[in-house]
Design goal:
By secondary structure, the chain is mostly helical. It is built from 17 helices and no strands.
Length: about 475
């Protein structure tokens, strides 16, 4: 085969149940969201439950049904195309792909911040050095793209190792949290009063981040034709991963709150701060560097997983000729969408530098997270709406339907749509510690609007080219 435009049928089916389960976990669970939640205090536990019921449950059932109805390569792109036509499909795929351009640097910044615990106090001064974060992020990006270009049969191991590297620190947090609580009591009082979510604006804007943390179970469907028996494998992996991810988020957040006061937790290093505090109290400081290595590997695995999933969207758009045909090319040896992967890496590299514009490392991290949330949730609006519209189509006997039929499916999708819309609005509000709030809003909202606008222009040019 040459490296001319490929077809999805030329892709290799290399992902089994174990691979997909670990893929869902590495893309859905990250200790950085545990740190973010713990920094908000005990009320985050209630918000985890609300987010699980308001977004995660509708998301799981939506992906279960749509992926069993239409298991083709492309996932959300295919579902939007089926429900609303080619333009909606393109914008869905475009924004889902684009959302990861700021997401990759944000996740890599998190990995870089926690990697500093490997070297102890001697490395901590680097925490305020943008150059360190930029170099780390570029190196991590290079690793992710290289492994994914070589092939999913190789790249999946970065995802799998990253998933396991996320479990172990989370379980370590739980064990050490229990030890810390039994010996010293709780560092953060957990009472009915502290559990009640605050309705002040500065706390409410954090809710969108918690909702965002539950995303990821839709990502595997973008690789539908690279999964063995996708109709059976995807549902089993989603349900198993969903239960594991929900438990890990809530239990790990409780453990952090038991170990250190919420005022001492930061979004960038909170998980490692908790591990360090617990290990020191338990007389096991030697565990801190090991925990830091695992948290860092988990971040790299998350980048690898998302890199694999999102690159399939410009690939199928290239096959449909809405993007230049080069995006639909498969590597002649490894049969991977290498052009889509390389272009994605190049643009993500630009975002690594853009996020630092006139702000601190912490400010860059917040801006990157907010940019990613808005762009990432736009496809969710299309996906939940597609779930409602596609209920009118007959379902084959092997399609997994939402219990309760069409009425229940419509209700769940409507709840998911509403929560998604609210999360988008909240993501536009700058945090209190941001020194230039106007610039924050301009970067976050402007980048998201520019993404949609550019996507529309690219689509129109592609449609003209396809005629």
């Amino acid at each position: 085969m040459t490296n001319s435009v490929g077809t999805t049928g030329q892709l290799r089916r290399v992902l089994g149940f174990r691979d997909l389960l670990l893929f869902y976990i590495v893309t859905s669970f990250s200790l950085r969201w545990v740190a973010t939640a713990a920094a908000a205090g005990p009320s985050a536990l209630v918000i985890w439950v609300i987010a699980a019921l308001g977004l995660f449950v509708p998301l799981v059932f939506t992906v279960l049904e749509l992926s069993s109805r239409y298991p083709e390569e492309g996932g959300v792109y295919v579902w939007s195309k089926r429900a609303f036509g080619p333009y909606a499909a393109f914008i869905t795929g475009w924004t889902y792909w684009g959302s990861n351009l700021p997401y990759f640097p944000g996740l890599l910044y998190f990995g870089a911040a926690n990697a500093l615990f490997i070297g102890g106090a001697a490395w901590q001064p680097l925490n305020s050095q943008p150059a360190y974060f930029i170099v780390f992020a570029l190196a991590g990006l290079t690793l992710a793209v290289t492994m994914n270009v070589v092939g999913l049969d190789v790249g999946k191991w970065l995802n799998n190792i990253g998933a396991v590297a996320g479990w172990i620190p989370a379980l370590l947090l739980m064990v050490l949290g229990a030890i810390s609580w039994s010996r010293f009591g709780t560092a953060t009082p957990i009472t009915p009063h502290t559990l009640a979510p605050s309705t002040s604006l500065k706390d409410v804007i954090f809710w969108s981040t918690i909702a965002f943390a539950f995303g990821g179970v839709e990502s595997g469907s973008t690789m539908g034709e690279e999964i063995h028996d996708a109709r059976r494998t995807v549902p089993r992996a989603i349900l198993t991963a969903g239960a594991i991810v929900t438990f890990l988020y809530i239990a790990a957040t409780v453990s952090v709150l038991l170990a250190i006061p919420r005022e001492q937790v930061s979004g960038l290093q909170g998980a490692m701060q908790a591990i360090q505090a617990m290990c020191t109290r338990a007389g096991m400081p030697w565990l801190v560097p090991l925990g830091a290595i695992l948290v860092t590997v988990n971040a790299l695995g998350g980048v690898g997983g998302w890199f694999a999933a999102t690159a399939r969207l410009p690939f199928v758009a290239g096959i449909d000729r809405y993007l230049p045909e080069a995006f639909g090319r498969l590597h002649p040896q490894w049969r991977t969408p290498y052009v889509a992967l390389l272009v994605q890496a190049l643009i993500a590299g630009v975002f690594i530098f853009l996020g630092q514009a006139k702000t601190s490392v912490h400010g860059a991290y917040d801006a990157l997270v907010s940019m990613g949330i808005i762009a990432y949730f736009i496809p969710f609006l299309f996906m939940f709406a597609a779930m409602i519209v596609l209920q009118r189509e007959p379902a084959a006997p092997d399609v997994i339907r939402v219990p309760g039929g069409r009425a229940a499916a419509t209700a769940l999708a409507s709840v998911g749509f509403a929560v998604t819309a609210i999360s988008i609005v909240l993501s536009c509000v700058p945090p209190d510690e941001e020194p230039d709030k106007t610039l924050f809003v301009v970067k976050v909202v402007g980048a998201s609007l520019a993404l949609v606008g550019i996507g529309t222009v690219v689509y129109l040019l592609g449609r003209r080219r396809a005629r």
